[in-house]
Amino acid sequence: MLRLLYDIIFQRRLYYYDHKHHCGNFFLSGNIFIGKPSNTVLSDIIPNYRYILYFDSDDSSSILQIDKWFEFGFLKKSSALIIFNQHRSVRKHYFKYLVDNEYNFAAICDYRNFLLPKGTIVFYVFNSITNPYVINSTDSHHIFIGHGESDKAASVNPMMKMYDAILVSGDIAKRRLVEHGIVASSDQERRIIRIGLPSVGPLFKSGKGALEKMETTLLYAPTWEGSLASQAYSSLDNDLSLIHI
């Protein structure tokens, strides 16, 4: 009964926060989350922002994958609304992190009758099972930006066929998507957009410790090691002394 009351009182509520105007329907007192009833609906909030960034993850570290798109200038915090699925296990952590780092956000859990206003631009960081609920708003523009690239299976997830456009770092990623049938060869110029890799941009900026563009430089960036043996792509366990430059 207590769990049912929790779901009714908390889980079926939209939580919203706007940093610039310091408004929303909840507040934080220290580390204590306190929700307040509100009649706010998502369709009333979204038109106040230029674009949406959507993600769904119950891993508390996933929130860090969002930072790089804002930290390095690809997206602007004041123009974006982050919408995420409010998992009970990480909800308070996400709320505090987003408030502390000056993001605008809306936390949802009820996807019934979920509909975005016409023309909404939505960026996706993960291929999550709730993404289709958002993509069901066919009058909006759905763009996959991801959170990294490599030759692992996640980079050619069949779910990526759903998006109107996919942003990639370069030609290798573009060829990968075509070769695996994610994007038709005849459609690649329209649906695959090369933007480079914003998260490594600061390495090439002038200043102390920065890399000079004319230097021969190897950037070693091991990928995530999957939870399954078949997805253990990381090379950190290998003998790095075997690498000769």
> Biggest sheet: strands side by side, in what order?
2-1-7-6-5-8-9-10-11
Distance between the termini: 64 Å
What structural class do the secondary elements suggest? alpha/beta
Biggest sheet overview: 9 strands, mixed
Strand elements, count: 11
| Overall 3D form | globular
What assembly state would you assign to the polypeptide chains in this entry?
Answer: single chain
Roughly what fraction of the amino acids lie in strands?
15-25%
Q: What is the average of the pLDDT values? A: 78
Q: Could you name the ranges where pLDDT drops below 50 across 5 or more consecutive residues?
A: 1-11, 27-37
Supply the CATH class of the domain at 2-148: Alpha Beta
Question: Roughly what percent helix?
Answer: 10-25%
CATH architecture of the domain at 2-148: 3-Layer(aba) Sandwich
| H/E element sequence | HEEEEHEHEHEEHEEHHE
Q: Report the total helices.
A: 7
Radius of gyration: 20 Å
At the fold tier of CATH, the topology name of the domain at 2-148 is: Rossmann fold
Fold topology:
Blueprint (H helix, E strand, L loop, with lengths): L1 H10 L3 E4 L4 E2 L1 E4 L2 E4 L6 H4 L5 E5 L8 H8 L8 E6 L5 H10 L4 E4 L12 E4 L6 H5 L5 E4 L20 E4 L2 H9 L8 H4 E3 L51
Parallel strand pairs: 5-6, 5-8, 6-7, 8-9, 9-10, 10-11
Antiparallel strand pairs: 1-2, 1-7, 3-4
